[in-house]
């Protein structure tokens, strides 16, 4: 993923992560967030709370005041803009997009059968990635956990 259009706070986070040789999982455990949320923070796609900034500044040995100022001045995230091209050009993102294009209609129908007419929120949302080691080759389990929101009549 290109990092050229990231906000200054994001670039500072990536530099500190590399300097300390930490993974998103290691950082997440230290600041009490899932590694997917941490990675999304690094890409400027989520908004950290004041305590999130304090904890990540401590873990990465960054200036808390500088990070707070950068986040306050950057405004709310422009979510989804980093992918840009549709379908995505990045091979991994392209395949995730392909999986959703192929299996999305079936997943949609199963969700409607189980939950009714509505959507799965990406606002009240969590994601988690697991590596599943198998003898026939490693696999990846991606868990999306979003609040179900019924459509309302008016």
TrEMBL record:
Keyword Zinc-finger: no
Gene Ontology MF annotations: cyanate hydratase activity; DNA binding
Stretches assigned to the Cyanate lyase C-terminal domain: 82-154
Enzyme nomenclature, EC number: 4.2.1.104
Gene3D superfamilies: Cyanate lyase, C-terminal domain, lambda repressor-like DNA-binding domains
Pfam families: Cyanate_lyase
Top enzyme class: lyase
Catalytic residues in the record: 95, 98, 121
Catalytic activity: cyanate + hydrogencarbonate + 3 H(+) = NH4(+) + 2 CO2
UniProt keyword Lyase present: yes
Keyword field: Lyase
InterPro entries named in the record: Cro/C1-type_HTH (IPR001387), Cyanase (IPR008076), Cyanate_lyase_C (IPR003712), Cyanate_lyase_C_sf (IPR036581), Lambda_DNA-bd_dom_sf (IPR010982)
Role, per record: Transcriptional coactivator that stimulates GCN4-dependent transcriptional activity by bridging the DNA-binding region of GCN4 and TBP (SPT15), thereby recruiting TBP to GCN4-bound promoters. Involved in induction of the ribosome quality control (RQC) pathway; a pathway that degrades nascent peptide chains during problematic translation. Required to prevent stalled ribosomes from frameshifting. Catalyzes the reaction of cyanate with bicarbonate to produce ammonia and carbon dioxide.
Similarity comment: Belongs to the MBF1 family. Belongs to the cyanase family.
Name of the protein: Cyanate hydratase
């Amino acid at each position: 993923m290109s990092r050229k259009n990231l906000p200054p706070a994001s670039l500072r986070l990536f530099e500190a992560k590399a300097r300390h040789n930490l993974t998103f999982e290691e950082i997440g455990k230290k600041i009490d967030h899932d590694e997917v949320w941490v990675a999304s923070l690094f890409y400027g796609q989520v908004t950290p709370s004041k305590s999130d900034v304090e904890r990540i500044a401590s873990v990465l040995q960054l200036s808390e005041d500088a990070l707070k100022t950068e986040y306050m001045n950057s405004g709310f995230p422009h979510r989804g803009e980093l992918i840009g091209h549709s379908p995505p050009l990045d091979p991994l993102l392209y395949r995730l997009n392909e999986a959703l294009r192929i299996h999305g209609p079936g997943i949609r129908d199963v969700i409607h059968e189980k939950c009714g007419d509505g959507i799965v929120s990406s606002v009240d949302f969590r994601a988690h990635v697991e590596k599943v080691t198998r003898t026939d080759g490693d696999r990846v389990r991606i868990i999306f956990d979003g609040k179900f929101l019924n459509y309302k009549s008016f």
